Amino acid sequence: MNTQVTTKFKIYKPSNEVFEAIIDPLKIGNFWFSSSSESWEQGKSITLRYDEYEAEGIINVLKVEKNKEIKFSWGEESNEVTVVTITLKELDNTSIIIEVNESGLNEHDPEIVSKMLGQKEGWVYMLTCLKGYLENGICDLRASLIH
User: Fold this and answer.
1) Cβ neighbour number for residue 32 with a 10 Å cutoff
2) Residue 121 maps to which CATH number?
3) What's CA 28's distance to the chain center, in Å?
4) For residue 47, is it within any domain?
């Protein structure tokens, strides 16, 4: 069973603006997490907070290719660690296709279908908030998804 989750969006902004929105700890709070401990760079462990849910997690940045790709792992070692690859494909100077691929979900988990649907929902929501933020300056969509 293929347990990868892939989500793609077209965003009408150049790749450098999309890239900076993700790695910049001051910008990420406008569409995704409440805060990021520092700028995302290869080899760093970054603490991400969701103040609304009183949650905190750590990602390990595996790869950063400026304006093209960000790859990180997250999850608890005792539970399940997945790898997320965010790829930016520039279409022209005004738009990109952003693709998020999450892999490493346990295919033998009896809840795998539910987990995959939840992750897909989360990535669609994050990309929707990113698109709203970058294209229209909307900063209050994040943390509004109700489970």
Assistant:
1) 20
2) 3.30.530.20
3) 10
4) yes
What is the reported pLDDT for 143? Answer: 74
Question: What pLDDT, on the 0 to 100 scale, is given for residue 78?
Answer: 64
- Tell me the chain's radius of gyration from C-alpha atoms: 15
Q: How far is CA 101 from the centre of its chain?
A: 9
Q: Which pTM does this prediction carry?
A: 0.94
What gap in Å lies between CA 111 and CA 30, rounded to an integer?
Answer: 32
Amino acid 147: pLDDT: 63
Task: With a cut of 50, list the residues of the chain below it in pLDDT.
Answer: none
Q: Which is nearest to 64 in space by CA: 38, 43, 80? A: 43
- Residue 147 located in a structural domain: no
Residue numbers of the domain that contains 43: 8-136
Number of folded domains that form the chain: 1
Q: What are phi and psi of 95, to 5 degrees?
A: -155, 155
Task: Report the distance separating Cα 90 and Cα 141, nearest Å.
Answer: 25
